[in-house]
Amino acid sequence: MTHSQHLLPLLMAGALALPAHAAEEKPADAFFRQLSSLCGKAFEGRLVEGNPNDTRFREQKLTMHVRECSPEVIRVPFHVGDDHSRTWVISRTAQGLRLKHDHRHADGSEDSITQYGGDTAEAGTASLQSFPADAHTAKLIPAAAENTWRVEILPGQHYSYQLQRGERRFRVDFDLTKPVALPPAPWGAKP
């Protein structure tokens, strides 16, 4: 009897049944759950791919903090040294997920270039979701109309934030094996 033939009776009897959420969970829901599992933790990262203009990202300490989590929205501030202006906002939509970039000034007011991003156009996977630029982004930043952002989570390994636009590539990887001290609140958020 082969290994598969041996497991078949166990599967049919329910002895090796998958957890209910694993059998029914959509990739976007699994991705959201994995990101939520990091809530309250911060991780240091490094620029893995970029262009010569990305000097600040090479020279400054990069920290992500999965700071606020609800069943519908996760807010992840991205700190670049003492610049606390950026927060990635991942939220649920009827079709999948949405990524927005919330940019603030030190006084908490919104930057003129903020709330850009997009919605998932495909199911993606439990570990990787892609967000093509939406119409708001194209209007706000015409050069970013062809942007696609990708977020990858490999639990216990790394979290990657990536931008692709033509030849332009930007990628920061965060080490999920070593949580770090929590950074200050991002600009515009309550401490």
* Unreliable parts: 1-18
Largest sheet: 11 strands, antiparallel
**What's the helical proportion of residues?**
10-25%
What is the H-and-E element order? HHHEHEEEEEEEHEEE
Beta-strand content estimate: 35-45%
Supply the number of helical segments.
5
How many DSSP-defined strands? Answer: 11
Taking Cα atoms only, what radius of gyration do you get, to the nearest Å? Answer: 19 Å
Distance between the termini: 62 Å
Molecular shape: globular
Mean pLDDT: 90
SS-derived structural category = alpha+beta
Gist?
With 191 residues, the protein is an alpha+beta fold. The chain is built from five helices and eleven strands.
List the SSEs and their pairings.
Layout: H1 3-13, H2 20-24, H3 27-36, E1 42-49, H4 55-59, E2 62-65, E3 68-69, E4 73-80, E5 83-92, E6 97-103, E7 116-119, E8 128-132, H5 135-140, E9 148-154, E10 158-165, E11 168-180
Antiparallel strand pairs: 1-2, 1-11, 2-4, 3-4, 4-5, 5-6, 6-7, 8-9, 9-10, 10-11
